[in-house]
Amino acid sequence: MSSKRILLLSLFFFILALGLTYYVLPQFAPRLRTDSVPPDAYTVPWMRPNPSIQELAPQLPYSPPTFDIDTVMAQALRINMTFRIEIPNGTRIVRSTVYLGHDLDYLYVGGKFIGMFTNPASTLERTVPNIFSLFFDTASDGVLKNPESGSRLSSYITSTGTGAWIYHDLVWAYGAQVGRTEWILADNYYTIYLGKTQPVFAVGDGVKGYDNSTGTLIVLFSRYLQRPEISEVNALQMKRGERWVMGFLFELGYATNSDAGDYVDGWPRKTYPYLSDDSSWWPKLVIDLSNAPSSFSA
Asked: Cα-flanking dihedrals φ and ψ of residue 212, to 5°?
């Protein structure tokens, strides 16, 4: 075979390989999700808590940390709201700010809740937690579908202002015990309905503080933007380079461990006890991993 023919064949196969690379293979590769941003959406900025959540954690178990969340989350998106939580013999008015930021791996969620005080359902025999929850309509299509994605931070506050915090993932799923679809604790859903053991949670690190004189509860935690191993209970699985627009909703209140339900209120409005899958009225939240600043690109 002449060198000229070899050269022409080599050029042909090179052009064929180039065409496969640029035109054929991308048709089979998974496409990155890049949603269009509505004009009224809340955009979460690139930021990290400073100091980090690990640095803020108390050195002794159950000792309340002291930190200024406005300083720690200075670059975050801030959403101000007022919760009106109906409790026996009255209503608690809780002026609140929720802080949101993200990097390539985590969504950082903070909250300052002024006038919350301790759970009115607590007694001398038990301490029932204050609860802060965040829900997502991950597809932003106005209808909740299994599994969706949520977070709940439970803060146990004693009369002296100390106590632990516990994190739960939340999953939108059918609960056979109640006979309807609702937000379920993901670890319970794993064990009761799927017959599995919960492998990991979406939470990274977390910390809380409490001022007993003003009844101010402060929480701050990080939440993974992608945990494929728990995709059965967590539909928030962002790839780098993607931009997601999601419906979102906050809830604040007090657990009661009662069949009658918890004492809670929601933002922008109350939805408990989740008898509807209609999320069309939820506000929109934007997390954009497609435009990482140089300081976050590593």
From this structure: -70, -25
